[in-house]
Amino acid sequence: MLHSTRTRRAAVLVPILALIPVATGLVPDRGAQPPEPANRDASEVAARIVTASLLDGQAYDHLASLVAAAPHRLSGSPGAAAAVEWARKRMTKIGFDEVRLEPCTVPHWERGEVQSVRLTAPASVTGVELRCLALGGSVPSPEGGIEAEVIAISSWDELAQRSADVAGKIVYFNRPFDLALRSTFEGYGGAVDQRSRGAVEAAKAGAVGVVIRSVASAIDDFPHTGGTNYQDGVTRIPAAAISTLAAERLDALVARGPVRLNLELDCRWHGDAPSFNVVGDLLGTESPEEIVVVGAHLDGWDVGHGAHDDGSGCAHALEVVRLLLDLDLRPRRTVRVVLFMNEENGLAGARAYARDHADELDRHVFAIESDRGGFTPRGFSTNAGDEALAVLRELAAPLDEIDAGSVDPGGTGADISQMAASGVPLAGFLPDGARYFAYHHTENDTLDKVSERELRLGAAAIAVLVHAVADREQPLPRNR
Ligand SMILES: [Zn+2]
C-alpha cells in the first residue's frame, strides 16, 4: 500500500523534475546512461524530499516558534522548561506516533546581573569597559570585583614557564582562533581549551581570575560564552570572555606596559534540577524495534536565541519526520527524534539517554546529530567503519544534486557520541562552517542570522540520508 503510493507519486514528479535542469541548462547532462533501478529509485525519493522542503518546508517555522516560546534555554532555567513543553507540543502537532519526556538531572547555573571587565591602569584607559560575558559555570567574584595586574598568556608552555609570575594576577589567555585553518571547527578546537581548562590551570599557578579572548572567528564586539570547568582540590576562580575586538585592544595595551583590570561577576549556582530529553518516534512499517536516531540539543546558552546553536538542529530533526509524514515516506525502521537536554554544560541528557536505553542500543542502527548551525548543507562526517562508510556514501550520493552528498570520517555530535561504545554508527550533519563561530554562544545568535532556504536545504539533506538508512533492506553494518 505504502509502496504503491510512493511509486505513483514519484512517477508523476520525476519527469518534470528531470526536464527542468536540462532544459534550462543549469546542470550538465550526465550522459545517456540511465542510473541503475535501485539508484534511480533513491534519486527519485531524494528529489521529492528536497523539492517538498524547498517549496513547503516548515523548518524555519519550527525554529521561529521555538525561539519565540523559549529564546533562552539554559539547563535548569524556566526557559529550558518552556522549551521542553514546546517540543512536546510540536511533536504532537506534527503527528509523531509516540512522544515522551524522559527525565534527566541537570546542573542549574545562572549568569546573574553583573558582569564587568573594567580597565584600572594605565591611567590613559582607566574606567574603560571591555565587553564581556561570564563563562558558563563560573563562580562569582567578591562584590565590587577582583582588581589585579594582567598577565597575558598565549600557550600552556608559556603558562608553565611564567608560573612564578602568575600568583595574585588575572591571567589573560589570548591565543587567537587560527583563521588560516580551512575548517572553522578546527580553528575552534585549537583555541577552546583556553575556555575549558583556563580557570583550572591559572588557579594552579595562583591566579585570582581569568579572562579569555572569545573563541570566535569574527573580530567584533560580541563576546562568546561557553562552559568552563573546575577541578576538585583547585581553587575556583571567576572566569569571563572578552570580545575579540576588546582582546585586540588589550593585546596592544599589554605590549606597551603593565595593565590592571577589575573583574566582577555575580553568577550563581543552584545545584541540580530535574529536566527532560524530549523523544518522539515515527514507528517503522516493518522493523519498528530497529531505530534510527535524529538528534539535536534543546538547551542553549542564555544569550541570543540559540538560533544556530542549536535551535536549527532541533528544527532540522523535527522537519525530517514532518517531511517523511507529508510525503507518505514512512520507512521500514523507526525514526526517533531525540532533543537532548544539557549539551552545553554537562551532557546530562545524552548520558541519561544512553543509560536508560542501554538494552536497546544494539537495535539502534544509526544516529545522526545536527549541531553545527542551520547553514547550507555540505555533507556529513561519520565515525562509521569502512563497511558502513561505503554504504553511507552510496545512500548520500543523490544529495550530490544539491552539493551535499559528501560523507567523510570525522566528528559526529556530543550527544550521540554517548552511543559510540555500543557500536552504533554515528554521523554529524555538516553545513557550511564559514559563519558559525561568528555567532555561536553570543547575543548575535538570533533568528535573523538563519536563512530560511538554507535551513530547508539542511532539513532535506538530513531527511534524505535518514530515510535511506531507515528504509534500507539491510541494517547499516555496525562499528566494532
Ligand atoms: Zn550546540
Automatic annotation (TrEMBL):
Protein's UniProt keywords contain Zinc: yes
Keywords: Aminopeptidase, Carboxypeptidase, Endoplasmic reticulum, Glycoprotein, Golgi apparatus, Hydrolase, Lysosome, Metal-binding, Metalloprotease, Protease, Secreted, Signal, Zinc, Zymogen
Keyword Metal-binding: yes
Pfam family, one: Peptidase_M28
One GO molecular-function entry: carboxypeptidase activity
A GO-annotated cellular component: lysosome
Main location: endoplasmic reticulum
GO terms for biological process, alphabetical: proteolysis
InterPro entries: CPQ, PA_domain, Peptidase_M28
Places the protein is found: Endoplasmic reticulum; Golgi apparatus; Lysosome; Secreted
Boundaries of every Peptidase M28 domain copy: 277-463
Domain PA: 163-250
Subunit structure: Homodimer. The monomeric form is inactive while the homodimer is active.
Protein name: Carboxypeptidase Q
Species, as recorded: Engelhardtia mirabilis
Upper classification of the organism: Bacteria, Pseudomonadati, Planctomycetota, Planctomycetia, Planctomycetia incertae sedis
